[in-house]
Amino acid sequence: MDTAELRTALRNAGLSQYQAEAYVALLQLGAASATELADACAVPTARIYDVLRDLEANGYIETYEQDSLHARACDPQSVMEDLRSRAVQLDEAAAEIETRWQQPAVDKHMLSIVKRFETVFSRTEEMIRDADGEVQLSVTPEQFENLKPALTEAYENGALVKVSLHSEHSVELDALDESDYRGVATEVRQRTLPTPFVAIADRTGACFAPHTNSVNQYGVLVDDYTLAYVFHWYFQTALWEVWDVVYTAQTGDPPIVYSDIRHFVQDAEPLLHDGKRIVAHIKGYGTDDREPVDFTGEVTDVFYTAVSAPNDTLSFSELAGQVCLTVESNGETYSVGGWGAMLEEIEANRITIEEIA
């Protein structure tokens, strides 16, 4: 510890700036007159006598007369004991603060703006651990590693976990082994451009933070069905649909699970056009009463507003308009829509192809 650091430590221990200056100088001089001491440190001569009296009262020095007022440093034992007791007290205070502190969560609100990315990341972990429907996530490989425990929980809860990986800078990502994703994600895609941090869970919660190189750094926390839908569309069109799949846990054989009706239609429309019979399990809500719906039936028709030949592969953007299914089950016919359905009887949040015949 150098002289400046020693003075700072003494000030932290309760000495004033002038007291710390005078005491450290007196340690170096051993003994000196008041005027000599004032010349040796940054204490004005007019203040040195008051400073010495205060140091003597606190047991740091003693003064004596030799034609003029002199001072010398006392045996530092009492000073050291005082400093050590303060250190112990501060250490105990730190331990007590750690014991009493529990991170207060940002109150859930329709929309919250925060300053720290740590707050966004913490809310994301909380959302993912509670998810049992779908998780959509745009992260760097490092962020993915940090979220693995939470993603594993969501995956085990039955959530479809979609991860878009990107680098912080425009560099190629290192290839990861499939074991890095197994039991953690349903599907992983790789984006070659840096992108914001985005997380959407179970259609109600969303978290957003700009890319680390952005001029403005902030975070957005969403706890609202409609606002989360905006982030969902951004994720699907900019961060997901156009990028290469690097891992998928699903096969082409039933059961094939979908959380988005548009992805279902992309796969099902060609099958129906070829005369295949599709039996699907539908889970969702009634659009009138929001009561849970759960049934299995045959998909007899799909409707979408895109203009496309039946043999063409439908893109996600082509299905941006109304998309719905007609499903027959136990003599009843149901119209099924996706997220935000208003014209259909049922909003589906999980469609599972049980059989293709």
Question: What can be said about this structure in brief?
Answer:
The protein is an alpha+beta fold and 357 residues long.
Could you walk me through the main structural features you see in this protein, from its secondary elements to its overall organization?
It holds the Pfam family TrmB. With 357 residues, this protein is α+β, with helices and mostly antiparallel strands. The chain has 3 domains: 3-100, Winged helix-like DNA-binding domain superfamily/Winged helix DNA-binding domain (Arc Repressor Mutant, subunit A, Orthogonal Bundle); 111-248, Endonuclease Chain A (Endonuclease, Chain A), CATH 3.30.870; 256-356, SH3 type barrels (Roll). Helix content is 35%, strand content 29%. The chain has 9 helices and 17 strands. The protein has helices at 3-12, 17-29, 34-40, 45-57, 77-100, 117-130, 141-156, 225-240, 261-273, and strands spanning 31-33, 61-66, 68-73, 111-114, 134-139, 160-165, 187-190, 197-201, 205-209, 219-223, 244-248, 256-258, 278-286, 292-304, 323-329, 332-337, 346-356. Strands 4-10-9-8-5-6-7-11 form an 8-stranded mixed sheet, with helices on both faces. Helix 1 crosses helix 2, helix 2 (17-29) packs across helix 4 and helix 6 (117-130) runs parallel beside helix 7 (141-156). The longest helix has 24 residues, at 77-100. The N and C termini lie far apart (80 Å). The relative contact order is 0.08. The mean pLDDT is 88.
